[in-house]
Protein 1
Amino acid sequence: MLRRLFAKKPKLEKVKSTVVATAGVVMPTGKSPDESYSELFHDVQVSSVYPDGKTFIDMVPRKKSRSIQQQYRVARQQPDFNLNTFVDEHFYQYHPHTHRPYEPGPETSAREHITRLWPELTRRNRRLRGTLLPLPHPYVVPGGRFSEQFYWDSYFIMLGLAADKEWSMIHGMMKNYAYMLRKFGFIPTANRNYFLSRSQPPFFSSMVTLLAVHRGRTRTYAEFLPALLTEYRFWMKGRKVALDHVDKPAYARIVRMPNGIVLNRYFDNKTTPRPESRREDLETATHAKEANKDKIFLDLRAGAESGWDFSSRWFRKASDIQSIHTTDMVPVDLNSLLYLHELTMAEADTLIKHPLLAKRFLRAAEKRPSAIRQYCW
């Protein structure tokens, strides 16, 4: 079904994908809207021009951000200024999938319904469109309102695609992640420039294992081993700092446990309100008892990186988001995923005849379960 969707001009499509995969690595991504639109962005998000903060941040500007900023500073001084009108004049919503929605009939089975949804949820974007970043290959989104490829959602989407033998789509989505790892050094939450400070639960190795069922272990592991290594380095960045400095047991996504073994936590590279939830995050920080607002913003962002945004597992007090302290915890799910990642890398190095590297990752994988049992249960 999906092959038919992209059957037209296959050679031209391949050329376009290749251009994005090569030239796109060095192309700029632009600043996040909270940085590029400054006062305008703050006013729109805090004023609730749209009920969902993600609506505005996903809109595409009609002009360059500097020009829009300058016009806003002048226009808002006028007595008859209307913020909603200004936004409508300078931004538009990008909806490439606005067509008559698919509706299942009463005779449609659950399996048929899922299969027929794939074309409805397939997107292709090879241009920079506001905050939406280009990717070389088509991808499936988790819901009809989205235009971006979300990280951990994609693994569960791939399980469904595999059941329908849509291996070409799975492979393309995997190559999108390999592309993002080359470009950014990690897999962001999704291909939006405001997600470029955080990732999501690292299911990349599970994706590699899934694809290997169809394409073969050696070929698949060899193709994605560089990407696996880049992903691992991202999560393990700061290991040396945590091990060498007694006063810094935690650094970035690394935590040195009391027994000296390193485990991981969710984190974020920024300590500001999430752009897509600016109003909500500011309200949380304002009413929180915690005096360190940067810490609250960091914990909110880290909770979003976990994909559990938001679960009471991150709160000191159940049902009270103001008590969030995500970065103080070493989550069992994250460390279990990284254990699988280490095993996958050890197996990949074994298959391509790199025994020393295989032993290195196997040793790392052997240390992690004992620490998980000791500290996470």
Protein 2
Amino acid sequence: DIMNFVSTQVGMVIGKKRAEDKMHESEKRYRGVFDGVREAIFVESMDGQILDISESACRMYGYTRDEMLNLHVYDLVPAGTQAIKAEDLINSKEPGKPIEWFNIRSSGEIFPVELSARVHEIDGKSILLVVVRDITGRKKSEEELHKAIQEKEILLRELHHRVKNNL
């Protein structure tokens, strides 16, 4: 009977070790995917407390991981700008559709972002998963395109005016 008991105990220890190894491997894969994306990913409580962030969020905002985990999402919104509340993201006309907004880096630089969010249930608690994309380059391109169109419209009006005068 002692041999059966010892054998059972050893089997339980080995099984527990395998389960722990699988959990660590799963966590490692999750962290690799989470930190491997270009966009900033925030896991937030429904009241805006930052629970977890991706490495790209740290790079995008210029904070260390520990600094970001001690911030509230409202700390990333420029002064004088109303923060988007979780309810606004969740209850938008098109859930999951990105919303354009502004955020602020640790350096004080204000930059345009595109936010999309989804609510998830973990251990019976609602959390918000927010993906943030820096759209500074896109906004700059749109501005340049708009400026070029305005210049062409001015040239066309001038050309039209000169042709009309010549006739």
